[in-house]
Amino acid sequence: MASIRKRLGKYQVQIRTQGQYITKTFIHLSDAKKWSTFHESKILLGVELQTLNKKLTLEDLINKYLNEITPLKKGCVTETQRLKRLLKEPLVHLKVYQLKTSNFLEFKQKRIKDGNRTCAYDLVLLHHIYNTAIKQWCYPITHNPLSNIQKPKCNFYNKIKFN
Fold it and tell me: How much is the pLDDT for 19?
């Protein structure tokens, strides 16, 4: 059952049902009621509530991918080199829950100076790491922040006209 109490000018929701306990604080009472109804229903339906580890960084995801997925690929040597280069980027030290599409757009603008193809490879690889974390490792990441980023054009044949 959910309980909502006003505390320090905000509304704190606590749900304790079927051995699960979650809590969250809201500014508006209407938001607190919606959230409590939604999450209480999920618990009663048997949906397991997971929260993302707040200490998990992009570096952790890349290292896990490097150890578990990359060795199984045909081009593991070149992908390992690419991943080790990515591990030197300041972006990888950010927490996964903090990373937004804008962070990766900044990375793209910086990386595109090394070439369109290089930038595209990095973006595709990061996109796949996120998808693997969501689908295969079942991390409770709500969406892939790289899914809306357009990859740079790599094909120079588009500029050449053939007779």
Answer: 66
Question: How big is the chain, counted in residues?
Answer: 163
Could you tell me the CA-to-CA distances from 84 to 47, 76, 81 in Å, in that order? 37, 12, 5
Question: Which is more confident, 10 or 44?
Answer: 10
Of these ranges, 3-12, 32-41, 124-133, 141-150, the one predicted with the greatest mean pLDDT is 124-133
pTM, rounded to two decimals:
0.67
- Under 8 Å between Cβ of 5 and 32: no
Domains within the chain, CATH numbers bracketed: 2-44 (no CATH), 51-163 (1.10.150.130)
Q: Which segments of the chain does DSSP mark as H helices, in order? A: 29-44, 58-68, 76-86, 101-111, 116-135
The Cα–Cα gap between 78 and 94 comes to: 25
* 160 burial via Cβ count (<10 Å: 0-12, 13-18, 19+): exposed
CB-based contact 29:4 (threshold 8 Å): yes
